[in-house]
Amino acid sequence: MDVSISYSLLKFINPKYFIKSFLKFRNRYLQKPQRIVVYGVSGVGKTEFLNSILGNNFSNGQRTQDLIEYPFELPDGHKVIFIDTPGHYTMSAVREGLQRDYAKCKISGIINIVSYGYQSTPETPVANVFKTGTNEIKDEFLRENLKIENNQLLEWERYVKADNQIKWFMTIVNKADLWYDSHDDVMEYYRAGEYYKTINGIEHCCNIHTFPYCSIMKSFMGKFRSLKYSEVEKKNMHEELISHLQRLACK
After folding, report:
1. What's the pLDDT score for residue 3?
2. How far apart are CA 125 and CA 138, in angstroms?
3. In Å, how far are 18, 21, 25, 28, 75 from 11, measured between CA atoms?
4. Which H or E element spans position 40?
């Protein structure tokens, strides 16, 4: 008997392999796709985040103007549909339309992309970002962007109620390669600081999760990036997030 055929048969009759294959078949063909809304204000790297998860490049360099759905299969066969939302403040009516439809859509979870104030948009003047003659970020620039993050939270926070059937809410703190030098302070802010105070009212409705993440490693407006962050950390964060999404899909 051919060696490769023998190996395939041995794998098939192995109980662990059989169970794993059966579960993947069940998840892929017998389970309904879970719908996940992806929020994020303009400039936090929402498109880059979706690119890193989906493994493609769907960005045309333009702002998202409407709700866009992206199907994705997790390694264990579970199917999810990411619902991309426009982040610009002028698109609040589009986001509000989705909020009204939460119950109808039976959305499983919400992912909110943040970046600890490191929002970058084409119209942002460099002079507003860096201290004169340096690569040092202005504190007021970060503070103002953190306010914008929190203000957008208030748009939908009141819609997250028990009857919406939303199981979980996840904060993805993107652009870890920029803020990694202050890792502990950043995660404290999102897990227990001002940001958390804004969302902790939804704990009775759904589970709250917070993850550091890096979609892509690059300079910030051509000048700044942490030298302590590496591709290893980036890979580990990605794998941890995918594993966690699989655990949430099983619940």
Report:
1. 46
2. 12
3. 8, 10, 16, 20, 19
4. strand 34-40
The closest alpha carbon to 221, from 151, 140, 138, 121, belongs to 121
* Cβ–Cβ < 8 Å for 95, 37: no
**CB atoms closer than 10 angstroms to residue 156:** 19
Please provide the DSSP assignment of 65-104 as one string.
-S-EEEEEE-TTS-EEEEEE---SGGGHHHHHHHHHTHHH
Three-state SS string over 202-244 comes to HCCCCEEEEEECCCCCCCECCCECCCCCCHHHHHHHHHHHHHH
Amino acid at 218: K
Query: Contact, 153 vs 143, CB < 8 A?
Result: no
- Within 10 angstroms of residue 220's Cβ, the number of other Cβ atoms is 19
Quote the pLDDT of residue 65: 56
The pLDDT of residue 138? 95
Cβ(186)–Cβ(118) under 8 Å? no
For residue 112, the cross-strand partners are 39, 171
Average pLDDT across each block of 10 residues of the chain; the chain has 251 residues. List them in order. Answer: 51 64 72 89 92 78 67 93 76 62 72 95 87 91 94 74 76 96 96 90 83 94 86 96 93 78
Distance between CA 36 and CA 48 in Å, rounded? 17
Decide: residue 228, CB within 10 A, 0-12 exposed, 13-18 middle, 19+ buried: exposed
CA dihedral 176, 138, 121, 123 (to 10 degrees): -170
Q: Which of 122, 118, 129, 134 is nearest to 189 (CA)?
A: 118
